[in-house]
Structure formats: C-alpha cells, structure tokens
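Mods, move this if it's the wrong board.
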Amino acid sequence: METKRKNWGVILLALLLGTMGVRAGIKVHTIGDSTMANYDENSTDKRGWCQMLQQFFNASEVIINNRGKSGASSKSFYLEAAYWKTVIANVNEGDYVVIQFAHNDEKNGGLDGDDVIAHAKENGQSTADIDYRGTTASGTFKKYIRAYIDETKAKGGKPIIVTPICRKYFSGNTIRRNGMHDLGDSFSILGSTSKGSVPESDNTYDYAQALRDVAAEYEDVPVIDLTLMTRDLYLSYGESYCTENLFCTDDSTHPKKMGATLIARLFAQAMKEQGILAEHIIVGTDITFSPTTGDFGKAYAGQTVVKEFNISAFGLANQAGTFTFTVTEGFEVSTDKVNYAQSVTAGYTGGNLISSVYIRTTLSTPGLLNGTLTATDGTVSRELPLVAECVDLSGGEEVSVLWPLTSDATPIVTGPCMAVDESWSGMYVQKYTNINKAAVWPAETGRDASYKTQRNLLEGDVWPAGEIDEVSTRYIQFGMTAPANTRIDIDKISLFVAGAGGSGMRCKIYYATDAEFSNATLIQELTTMAGNTVYAIESIPVVNIADGESIYLRVYPWYKSEASGKTICLSDVYIHGMASDATGIEEVTTNNGTSDELYDLMGRPVKSPVKGHIYLAKGKKMVIK
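Not the wrong board. Structure tokens:
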C-alpha cells in the first residue's frame, strides 16, 4: 500500500457513508475498578482486561466504552460525579453495561466506610485516615450493584454482572479465600482490633457470591463468573508463570498485557457461550489487534510518536512458528521499543500468539500520514490501517503557567492565558522546604539538596495501610484556562515529584479537560519511588482548549504501607502551549455528546466524539466544541 500524505479516498468514503445514514454499532459500557481500566503503555506495565476487550468484538458493530476507574469501589463510582452519572447519561436503549466491582469494596476489612467513620465520630476519634469506599458484602455492596442494574434497565440498557478477577494469592494448588474476594477467614469487627472468621460455607463476607446473589434476584441479568475462570486460569499456569507473564511487576492484583488479554478473551468466550452478542464476537483463529484502530491521533510537526499494539492469535495451524510484522514507508516497527525497522519478527509456541509491537513515526508535513501494519505467519495474515495527523503550531503566541513552589503556590503566567489556582482534596501543604539533606535531583537541573519544594501531606497525617492504588478524593490540582476568543494548543506538561522520608511513596499523574475529571488521560504512574529522589515528569499532550475552557493536571499520591508524616514533594509544575485567535475556527456542537454526521480520519462513524479532536463532517475537518 502506498503511503500518502492525504487520503482523499477516505474523505470520499466518509461523505458516502454520511449520505447513506450509517450509524455506529451497539455500545458496551464497562464500569469497575483498576483491573479493568485503560493504561498508557509509556507509564506502566499494567493493562486492564477491558482495555484489551475491543479486539474480541467486531469493531464496526460493537463499541467498547471502557470506564473502569482506578481506585473505584461500587460506592465511590456511584457517588462521585465524574463516574456513574457520566456513564448512565450516555446509555441508550439496547446498550450493555458490564458491572465488575469488589477489589476496593474490601477496604476496611469488610466494613462499610461510612459505618467506620460514624463510629469514630461517636468516640471522638479522627476520621481523616478512614477510607469511605469500603462496603459490606451482604449489605451496602449489594445495594449499589442493584442501583446500577435498576438504572441501566430504566434506560433500556442490558446489565451484565461480572464477578471480579482473582488476586494472585496462591496457597499450594489453589487460590486463597481472600484471593477470590471472600474475607471470611479474616474480617474486621467494628470497634475492635480483633479479627473475625467464619467457615467457608458462610458467604457473609464473600463479594463474588454477593454479585451472583444479586443477579439471581433478576430474571434477565446474566453473570460472567470471572472469579472462577481466572482462578482456573492461574492454577493452570502455576504461580511462577503467572508472576512472570500475567501480572504487573509491583503487585498481585493487576494484570499486564498477556494476563489482561487472556482474561478479556475468557470474558468474550463466556459472552458467546451465553448467547450475548455472540454473532459479533471474535474468539476463533483470527489475528486480532488491540487497539483495534491504527489511529495515532494528532502530533505536532517534528514530534516522534510511538504507539503500542498488542497482537493476538489463538488456535493457529502450527504449534510453533514465527510472525512477521511489517509497516509501510513513513512508519517503523519494533518488538523491544529500542530497535526499529520496516519489518520485525516474533516467535510463538503452543499454537497461540500474544505479542506486542511498537510503531513510531516522526511527523513533519501538516496533514495526514497513512500506512499499514501487516501481521503474518505465512498461513494467516491481517492488515491494520495506520493514520497520524501532523499539526503545525507555527504562527501562534507562546503561553505558559509555571508554579515554582519554592515558597508559596503563586503561579507565573506568560502570554494570553489564565492560571487555575492550585487546589487540594484530602491534602494540604505541610511546608516549603528542601526535600532532605540527601535529596538527589536530576543532573541536568543543576540543583542540590538544599533546593526548596512544596511538601504535601494527606489530611490526618497518617497514610493508611493496604493502599495499592490512587484514592479518587485525594489529589493536588493545577490548571490553565483559555481566555475568550482564544484557542490554546497544549504542547507540554512537566513537573518534578519526589517522596520525602521513605521509599514507599507512589503516585499517578493525569490531565483532563473536563472539571469533573471524568475522562482523564494518564501521564505517568510511579509504582516505585526511591526516597528523597526527584523524578522529572514530562508529557506532550496534543490537546486544545478554547474560549474559557481549561486543562487540569492532578497528582494522586498514596503510600505503600501505613506511615506517618511522609510527604509528596512538588516543584516546577509547568503547562505550556501556543495561543491563536479562536474566531473563525469551524466548530461542531454535538447533541448530548453524540452525532450521526461525524467520522474519524479513517472514515468510520463516531458516536461519542471527544472535545477538541478533529473529525470529518459534511466534507470538512471540524473541531468538536
């Protein structure tokens, strides 16, 4: 296939589809926790199983809207405005809603967080370090699951209950009870430091069983039992293989790409066996790509962009062999993200392939760059179209907001933009001082251990035990706003971050263009942070804001164990962009976030466009307002 800068065939196809009134397919909304969520391949080796799900469905017929959220429990996802409210508002008749919770409902050892808070208040105790997200398996957990089901059905949607994937808690040739989300061996007792236990026949503290029980209350709510399926999957491989190949490097809860792919396929197979969307599911010997589109999005002139593609094939004719991955001119491919070429190979055994390739391109000429990725082992072959858009920022006026954070939170604003003042949720500034006398800064900064930073501490001063992920109500926020009639193309976000006092600090860093942070993009996940060591974080988000809109940056910290006084230190938080006159830019205002007249740059109809992205509409490129 010839590589071209402009693909007029795609544009003509989009116009033709528009006249035919083609509509996007069925939507499957997935809600739950971090084991389902989307992750950026540049920030972590974690992958949510729903992140890998689209490849097992015909993408022209079924759209996966993955809304899994790190740190979410059934309660927090329901109550916090950014999550369930924004999902249910876009559930249409005939859509499916996949519901998987439990991991974070187990906070507080099986007690409801609100009950623990109330008890502490009655006894004059601090509530700052009590996690409200916890629910009781037999009580409040079921209440929220019923709410998701009832509200989905009220919108004409079809709920599907999914029991949570197992944790990698091996005990000989089985998975421990708590690994299957049954806390019956050890649960908390309100007002006591002692732990309780019940026999295995008692399901009072079994969250997976609670999901099965709630589904049984309805005649038309199916259950996909991933708890049992993943238990059997892990046991079939054994603990050492699971640790090396299925799970991320830093815990026993989150899968990485191979584990997430296998779990997604198990789910799709179970759906097909139950006759749910069976005709749309791909679980045969076809080669599948994840993501299922080769859209690199937008990048600035001169920028090199890299995108990860997971490629799977099961039940191949040969038990062992070699796949060749080839890309057309303008793109390069690699299997190790180091050595790039036009063509690379990867071996497979057991008749199955689960591999990753990395494709990069350096954009120079404004417009579209099109190409193709081909995967083949000589007996089966499949192509994936590739497209990237080059954006030229020349002619704009430079704007930036910098928070030095050496003595206060005052920002330095340059050019036509406005700062969103720093704010805190569940945290506060302890003081402005150096990190530690042994602090180590990146060499290029020229800074020594005496350099001052903003040291932030959570309310209550004690980091709770047992946290392995972000807490949605605990963060530090910064932002930039575009003035009226001004468009700002954001081309850089950077900051320095460190943990003072120990090596247990962890954090995630996101940006979003909606104030509720309902569709945030992960910039970086630091799953290990050496104490008193400064990490330089930098991202090039190709996103724009205009006419009073804002971009927000949030840092979500947690500590790997219970600890007092440990602080997360921030310095030189920076948001940069190029401003231009927003008058005269052709924009499309969508109806409730959907449109039947919008197409992506590859000619596919778009049901849920993203603000600021460029689409084809009525023969023109339009920016979503």
